[in-house]
Structures are given as C-alpha cells and as structure tokens.
Specification:
By secondary structure, the protein is of the alpha+beta class. The protein contains 16 helices and 20 strands. It has a 20-stranded mixed sheet that branches. Helix 3 runs antiparallel to helix 16. The protein starts with a helix and ends with a strand.
Length: 451
Amino acid sequence: MMKRIIIYIITIGVVLSSCSSDYRNAIPANSIALLSLDVKGISEADNAGDKSIINSILQIEDIGQSGIDLNERIYLFEDAEGMLGLVACVDNEKKVESWFEELSQKNKCTKIKERKGYKFSVFNDSFVAGFSKSAIILMGPTIGSGQSKLQAKITKYLGTENDNSIVNTPMYERLDSIETPIAMIIRGQALPEKMLSLFSMGALSKAKPNDILMAASATVSDGCLNIVGETFSFDNDIDLSIKSSLATYHPIEGKYIDCISLNNVLTILSGVNGENYLNLLRNNIPFRTLLIGLNTALDIDMILKSIDGDILMAMPSAKGKNFDFQLLANVRDTDWLADVDYWKKTTPSGYEIRNKNDREFFYSGAGWNMYFGINKQNQLYISTTENLAQTAGLPSGERLSECVRNGIRGKRACVIVSLDALTKQMPQLQTAMDIFSSIFGNVNVVVYSMK
C-alpha cells in the first residue's frame, strides 16, 4: 500500500511540474537572447501594477479574465533569424479565445483562424499571435506574406516536445539559476558589433560571437535600469580567459562620474592599469585594428600605458561612420610628451600632428581628426572634436541622477546608455523603445555593471 502511495505522489509531482513547464517548450531552442520576467515580482519591487506590462504588450485590461497565468514567468526572446517574440503561460484556453474575440470587435486584432490545431490572430497588422491550451506566442513585426511564414514558425514552436525544448539547454539552465524578477541571457551574436567588442574583452582570439554570452539580473529604480551581469562562455578555454581578464579591472574611484553627460549615447567607466589594459585591447580585434591605425603616426601604446586609475570613454553621438568619441583618464606619468616632436618628424605622408601648446596636440590622417594631450587637471584626454577636448574633465551640465552616480562608484566597470539620447539620434529605434518602456516603465538610463 505504501509503495502505491509513493508512486501516486511521484506521479502527481511529475504531472504538476509538467503543467508549469509545458509552455516554456514554446520558447525557440535557437534563441540568441532571452529575458525572463516575474510580473508579480516586478510589481511588488517597483510598486507598479502588473497591468503596466501586460496592458502595453498584450492589450489586456482585465488580467483575471485573460486566460494568461501571471504566476508563471513571461519570456521575451530573439530567435536565430532576429525575430522578436513573447511566450506566456495559458491557464484557460477558452478565456484567451474570448479575449481575442473582444479585441477583434475593437479592431485591435484580426478574427481568430485555426491552423494545425492552434489558433491565430494578428495584432496591429504586424504582430502574429498563436496559442494552444498551454502557451501563447506573440512574434513580429512583419507584414504581408511574412505573416503566413511567421504562423508556420509559431506552429512549429507551439508543437515543440520537451526533448527538443530550450528548457533542456545550458543557456536556459543558466537563465533559470538567476533568482530575480528580471533575468536575462544574451549570446554575442545578438549584440551590435561595437557593443560585442566591449563584452568580449579578454576572450581568446578564436572566440566567435556565438561563444560569448552575457548573463544578468536587473532592477529598476529612479528612472534607471540597473543590470548586474557577467560575461562567460560554455567553452572552458574561452571562459577561463574571460575570467582571468577580470583581474585587469580595479574599483572605480568616481573621479569622472560628474563628467558623464545624459546627452552621451554611450559611456564606459572603469578602473585599470594601463599596461594590463593595453594587453586586453590588443587581443580584441576591433580595438587592435584601431590601435594599429593610430600607431601609424604616433605611439598610442605608450600613451595608454601611462594610464593608472579611472578611465572614461564616451560616445556623445552614434551617427555616421566616424562617430564622436572622448577618452579621459588618470595617468601615472607624462613621459610620452617628450616623444611628440619625434612623432611629428616621422609622420607618414597624409598625416599631421600640430601643437596647441606644449602639452596638447591635434592629429589628423586617414579621414580622422583627434585632439589629445594632458589638460590643466593633469588628465589624459583623447577627443574627436575641439569642443570635447575643451570640456574634457569638466563637470557636465546634464549629469546622471545622484542614485545612479552613487551606484557606479566602487564597481570595476560600468556601461551607461542614455535612452533619451539614443532615440533622439536614431528615431528608427522608437518602436523598440516603446516596447522597452512597456516592460520596464519610465526608464531613461541603462547601467550595466560588471559582476
């Protein structure tokens, strides 16, 4: 009798666990980015109603009647083809169907159509939704014939069995181990090339974008999305090289925090020893290419080796091929100043180095201008415009909030993105930012700090 009871309990446990995980099988196993949201946890942490997320993404006014189970996590993903999507748990298929019919009557989506046992509708002429008795998927944007192809893709995802699911992959297991309301894991191929070069610092040269991953937890406060993460690899050799490179970074003292402008699209702040940091840059292909170009006319290696302490790298503009750039850093010495006259004499044809004064210079060549030197505060600066050179080291008139500034100090490395500046310069990102705001609320700054 006892044996039968034990078997019964085990069977019930298996059934219950499968009910809660079935919907996750619909997440594409080839996802290159995955964001996990505990809607109720976010609401409790941020004192916001869970409608803020669900209303914006799924147009649900009465959550209790939607058929969506908010006790389970919602997953946002990017599949291998770059298509964005959402997966949520269905606890009542009939209620989901009624919700779709109600939205259809309000012309917010098309009437439900059935395909291979699953039900489909299209939101706002661009997002395709499909659902089963256990999961709902929303993917897009796409138009015209692309919607039929997307329905076929969603049909495939909804029919995925557990053995072929993302749930059984190392990527999902790593995500599931992050016990915070907002968790994410991203493969390098999902990141823009310039951003990937930042997160792959220290990785072996053999590493491909698919080998580099970033896992992180996130919280929202004071208009800032604070992300704490780490870069890693499932390849043991690459992972070891990344972990070893962390010793290069030192805690940020905070000397340049007030110099960071909200008008910068991107800012990187870290604490480094120049010689060790230079070795990291040399092993990173994009940075190595930049160093080779600069070393054509001057000894940029010698300049960078003089750095000791906080270093700030800012990108005020993301427009154009040659974007604006500023570097500001503490220095151990200024010995390289004695070599500038030699650099001027040996500059190749088409390149030029001119003095502004004994410690500040202008460089031009290969279609690129650069102002560099030691300013009055005895700080190294490298800037692409004269205005950036003149303001290097000065407090910004558009500073980060006090909460954000305090959160940066003491970290080893931080990447700061101003969403307002980004959307002003790149209006094509507005739709993505609207989705971002629907998830995280009124956020204007994202801060990623190294774990």
